[in-house]
Amino acid sequence: MTIGIPPVIDAAQSVGTNADRAYEIMREQLIMLEIRPGEPINDDRLAEQLGLGRTPIREGLKRLERERLVVAYPRRGTFATAVDMTDLANISEIRKQLEPAASARAARTATRASRDRLTELAASIASIDDTDDPREVLRKDVAVHREIYRASGNPHLEDILVSLDAHATRIWCLFLDRLPNVAGHVREHVVLLQAIIDGDADTAAELTLEHVTGFENAIRELL
């Protein structure tokens, strides 16, 4: 297991901040399957790698357990959860309802600052090349989804969708080497982002539903 290590945090910062940092690092590794499904997670080793105490690591792992990204077994330890393909239908069912709602709401209510961030993301996504590293392309996909959820201005909706997208991304990563045209799939977001920026709620909802449905269909074709 390889963990990227950001700059060292000042020792005076709070345990809560360190726990947030540990949580974010571990969460990305789990979502991108850099911590493999079923892999044991050693909190002592993580603490050493990240330059943090064991308490922030454990706090981060508690949050990840609530999100079903890790599972703890008494006397056995903590492990990355398996990627359960039976979850695909359940995840897609909810995303088909909530993702279009979030996009439409963002189109109606996003702040000027949010629209500016979406504009920057649209330019970044438009520049994706078919030869780009699929994992880096997928990271941009995650960034787009999170920014749309944030732009919706509903923190409860945002939290639900961030969690669902994490599990959807894990499924995507499992098939990443076999999926055709990942770059093209992610570039679809350009017109969606523009619809949100322009305040076109109906088009944003329609494009979002097409995108979520396309994700599910692409995975099912490989099963």
From TrEMBL:
InterPro entries in the record: GntR_C, TF_FadR/GntR_C, Tscrpt_reg_HTH_GntR, WH-like_DNA-bd_sf, WH_DNA-bd_sf
Keyword Transcription regulation: yes
One Pfam family here: FCD
Protein keywords: DNA-binding, Transcription, Transcription regulation
Keyword Transcription: yes
Domain HTH gntR-type: 16-83
Name of this protein: GntR family transcriptional regulator
Organism of derivation: Rhodococcus navarretei
